[in-house]
Amino acid sequence: MSEMLTIRVSGLGHTLNFGLDSSTKVKDLKESIYNKTNIPPQYQRLLARGTQLDVRTNTDTDNITLEEASVKNRQKIMLMHNARYAQEKESYEKLIEIEKEIEELNEKSSELAEKVKSELVTRICCKLDEVELNREFVELRAKRKELIQKAEDIDK
């Protein structure tokens, strides 16, 4: 039988409180953390009582429930970056920086001459092309593709 849990997630400059059912999956907790912190689930490492939350069982790691991960009511969970983040950090941060640049250009695009707007979009696309992405960085490759589309949409 599932019960309601009050848990606190803290780390990386964030302190979050959640009221969750014990049948909540770790992947859903990670998604909730992402919604409040913008730290993508694939870069999150969650520790409870010194043990990594999402690898406590031999099952599909993010599909275990909080109950299966032995999370108790009023427990504190530490939020950290995982090893994957260390590998992809530089590329991820560059994409986030370029995304902000695209948003700023989009906000002021109506005030710019078409030729200027086109030039700025071209420069952004060149910056996106310069971001180093290995084949295994699947989510980042998809993010770059999405950003290229957003930039090109400004120039239409």
Protein described:
With 156 residues, the chain is of the alpha+beta class. Helices cover 46% and strands 19% of the residues. It has 4 helices and 5 strands; from the N terminus they run ββαβββααα. Strands 2-1-5-3-4 form a 5-stranded mixed β-sheet. β3 and β4 form a beta hairpin. α2 runs parallel beside α4 and α3 runs antiparallel to α4. The longest helix has 26 residues. The protein is elongated, with a radius of gyration of 20 Å. 22% of the residues are buried.
Q: What's the quick description here?
A:
The protein is an alpha+beta fold. The chain has 4 helices and 5 strands.
Record the SSE blueprint.
Layout: E1 4-11, E2 14-21, H1 26-37, E3 44-48, E4 51-52, E5 76-81, H2 83-108, H3 114-130, H4 138-154
Parallel strand pairs: 1-5
Antiparallel strand pairs: 1-2, 3-4, 3-5
Helix pairs in contact: 2-3, 2-4, 3-4
Run of helices and strands? EEHEEEHHH
> Which stretches are low in confidence, meaning pLDDT under 50 for 5 or more residues running?
none
Characterize the main sheet. 5 strands, mixed
Distance between the termini: 55 Å
Rg, rounded, reads: 20 Å
Number of helices: 4
Largest beta sheet: strand ordering: 2-1-5-3-4
Observed structural traits:
alpha+beta; single chain; 5-stranded mixed β-sheet; 46% helix; 156 residues
